[in-house]
Specification:
2 domains, Nucleotidyltransferase, domain 5, alpha/beta, single chain, five-stranded mixed β-sheet, 5 strands
């Protein structure tokens, strides 16, 4: 889709871009060469060719940062398919009162990683710096500011941050992450339904106070699903946004589903300790918070 984007040309907005598509100029390769037909205007066509040369060079160099600056933020979703293998999907949980991060999970092309306060959270910046494309849900307002404040100058800046909350709103998909997942038919497994952000705070505090491994396991699993589900949502959103353009640009041949990672997630959780008491741990954590 990025090769069909003309809004990176100064003076070309959504309406003018649609006009180009309607006239058969549906990709960078279709734009008339110098001396050919006029696409925008004699003056703008010169600028357009220069911008397209710059965009081609950036794409060939895998320079996501430059492309992100050229493309309007509302259209950053168009870069997702091209750079999907370089994306990290992540989500955080916090302590609540202090806002300090407690558990952070990353999901990327090599698998997933979980970082826990008091264990290895200090390694998070070096893990994230490897991935130029960050994908979150409301991360621009919540996750990233919290992590930036916590780590300070040690926290990296991505080449591009795709916040799916904004993409979903433009598509008319309202509500939080779990609500949108349910609407699209890939909601959480039964034992995680009803578990929310406040429960994550309760589980963390209960783990700290009692070293209840079941509470920590459930917290980690809850957080992991937030990261893993983002990949499915990103691909679904990309396909819907692409459909709305009316173009025949390629999408994803296989939309990721959490079942693709279920074995690895289960194995990771089992390595933390025996399973089976998570539901009871959640009730204990909730009662302790009410006391």
């Amino acid at each position: 889709m990025i090769r069909r984007t003309f809004q990176l040309i100064r003076g070309v907005g959504p309406s003018r871009e649609r006009d180009l598509w309607a006239e058969g100029i549906r990709s960078w390769d279709d734009f008339p060469p110098e001396g050919g037909a006029i696409a925008l205007s004699a003056r703008l066509d010169v600028t357009a060719r220069e911008r397209l040369v710059e965009a081609r060079a950036a794409l060939e160099a895998r320079d996501l940062s430059t492309l992100g600056k050229m493309v309007p933020p509302r259209e950053h979703w168009r870069l997702y398919r091209e750079f999907e293998r370089e994306a990290v999907y992540f989500d955080i949980e916090t302590e609540g009162a202090t806002g300090a991060p407690t558990v952070v999970s990353l999901f990327h092309a090599e698998g997933f990683e979980v970082f826990i306060a008091g264990r290895d959270l200090d390694r998070l910046p070096e893990a994230m710096v490897r991935w130029p494309l960050w994908v979150t849900f409301n991360g621009s307002s919540y996750d990233v500011p919290i992590l930036s404040a916590y780590f300070g100058s040690a926290f990296p800046t991505p080449a591009l941050h795709l916040d799916l909350c904004h993409v979903c709103r433009r598509l008319g998909w309202k509500g939080g992450l779990k609500r949108i997942e349910d609407r699209l038919g890939f909601g959480r497994p039964p034992h995680l339904r009803g578990v929310g952000g406040l429960d994550a705070v309760f589980l963390w505090r209960y783990w700290l106070a009692n070293k209840d491994l079941a509470a920590l396991r459930l917290l980690v699993e809850y957080n992991l699903y937030d990261s893993v589900q983002l990949r499915t949502l990103a691909q679904r959103a990309y396909h819907r946004a692409l459909e709305l353009t009316g173009l025949d640009a390629p999408g994803f041949s296989h939309v990721f589903e959490r079942g693709d990672m279920l074995y690895d997630v289960t194995r990771f959780l089992m390595a933390m300790g025996p399973a089976g008491a998570e539901a009871e741990a959640l009730e204990r954590a909730r009662r302790a918070a009410e006391a």
